[in-house]
Structures are given as structure tokens and as C-alpha cells.
Write a structure and sequence with these properties.
247 residues; mainly beta; Immunoglobulin-like; seven-stranded mixed beta sheet; four-stranded antiparallel beta sheet; 41% strand; elongated
Length: 247
């Protein structure tokens, strides 16, 4: 049986949801595979059963806790904390959860007399990605740029991926690290962009590499000169201190 899942509420230009089969076996009628599903905080997510025929006696559970139950010829019964937050398609068995919170993250299971085996989904709830912060340092002839997710963001850091956009070879090679090194000679007047992404969101920040490289020679300290006429020390034409005294 083919099984599908979809999430709503992702950033513009990105897919509404991402489905990843996380079991390492083929899905046959006698084997129940878990489907990885991503949802966004405060948005909606729908679990699709992909049933080709109407289903009877529906039960959705979060782990061992009931979410909604619909027996044939009876009204559906919704359980806390999902009251007023779900919609059940009583024909297909599809379940939609509204206004997602981080506490909704868990394993979900669909059961029905019309389905030989239960269908399981693993839901992960993600928060929108903030703009990353960029810092750069110069060592010898190399400019090192570091890309960081600002604190206190902590929503599934392990799912965050990094990529870089710039004209240097280091960026073109597709570095996926949170930092990249660029030759100093390639840094003048050029911009480097760090892109952070997870299965639902994408954000980016950029920095002008020229700002990482100091320019010009250090200015020499002003010289002190002595005026022989009045025996005073002068600095750039300003009177500083008298070095003689009347006797």
C-alpha cells in the first residue's frame, strides 16, 4: 500500500511538506512502515492514509493516547488536547491537525477495520529559521567566515544544513560546513552569503568580505619637535609643556 504525507505552512517558495520513508524494508501489506512528516509551528499538518476505498471504524492515536475515534453509525469522539484542533475525513480517514505546537511532535498511528495493518507517522514540528549571523577573521592570507544560528533557537539543530554563495572556488565547490575560508586576494569588494535550511524553511545572511580585511598602513605616531627660540616642545603646532624654567 502506498502511503503519503503532507504538511502545510512552510516558507514561500518551499514545498509545503517533506515525506521521508524511514524504514529500511519495502512496504508490503504485511509490513507497516513509518513515514517521517514535518510540520511548522502554528500551522497545519495532514496525515494522508491514501485509502482508495471508504474506511470504517477509524481510530487515530498519538502513541497510546486516543486522538479521535469514529465508529460506523456513531458520531466521532475527539479527545484532549485535540478538541477543536483537528478535522477527520470520515471517508478516507485522513487527519488534519491545526495550530501545531512543539508538544504535538510524536508518533501517530491510524487504525481501521478497512486496513489490514496500522499506518504510522512520525511528526516533527519545526520553528521558522532566524537569519544567521556571520563573523569573519583574517589569519595570514586567509579570511575565515563563520555562520551561526543565533541563540536561543534550538528547534532541531541537527536538521539544519548550510550552503554558501560567492564567486570564489571555495563556495563553488559547495561547502556544507558552517564556516568557509576564502583567499584574501579574492575577498576585495565581494560578498559572501550563508544559506541555512531545514526540511521546511530557508533563510540567509550576507557579508562584504572587504570588511574583514584591514586596509592601509598604520599611521605613525606624531613626532615631538623642539622650538629653539622659546625652548618649548611642540606637537603639530600645539604647545605641550615647558622644559625650561627661569633662574
Amino acid at each position: 500500500m502506498a502511503r503519503h504525507a503532507m504538511a502545510a505552512g512552510s516558507a514561500p517558495g518551499w514545498a509545503a511538506g517533506v515525506l521521508a520513508v524511514v524504514c529500511l524494508v519495502f512496504c508490503f501489506d504485511v509490513i507497516s512502515c513509518d513515514s517521517q512528516l514535518y510540520g511548522a509551528v502554528n500551522k497545519n499538518v495532514t496525515f494522508f492514509t491514501a485509502s482508495s476505498t471508504p474506511v470504517k471504524d477509524i481510530l487515530w492515536k498519538k502513541r497510546k493516547d486516543k486522538i479521535v475515534e469514529k465508529e460506523e453509525n456513531f458520531e466521532e469522539k475527539v479527545f484532549q488536547p485535540f478538541t477543536d484542533r483537528i478535522h477527520l475525513n470520515s471517508i478516507s480517514g485522513d487527519l488534519t491537525i491545526f495550530n501545531l505546537t512543539s508538544s504535538d511532535e510524536d508518533e501517530y498511528e491510524f487504525e481501521s477495520l478497512s486496513v489490514k495493518d496500522s499506518i504510522k507517522f512520525v511528526l516533527m514540528v519545526l520553528e521558522p529559521l532566524p537569519s544567521p549571523t556571520l563573523n569573519c577573521t583574517l589569519a595570514n592570507e586567509t579570511v575565515r567566515v563563520q555562520c551561526r544560528i543565533p541563540e536561543p533557537y534550538s528547534s532541531h539543530i541537527d536538521l539544519i544544513r548550510y550552503s554558501w554563495n560567492c564567486s570564489s572556488a571555495q563556495c563553488k565547490n559547495g561547502s556544507e560546513s558552517s564556516e568557509v575560508c576564502v583567499n584574501k586576494k579574492d575577498a576585495l569588494s565581494r560578498t559572501i552569503e550563508c544559506v541555512v535550511s531545514n526540511p521546511l524553511f530557508r533563510n540567509a545572511s550576507s557579508i562584504v568580505l572587504d570588511t574583514c580585511v584591514p586596509h592601509g598602513k598604520a599611521k605613525e605616531a606624531p613626532k615631538l619637535t623642539r622650538s629653539p627660540s622659546n625652548k618649548l616642545w611642540k606637537r603639530q603646532g600645539l604647545l605641550l609643556v615647558t622644559i625650561t624654567a627661569d633662574h
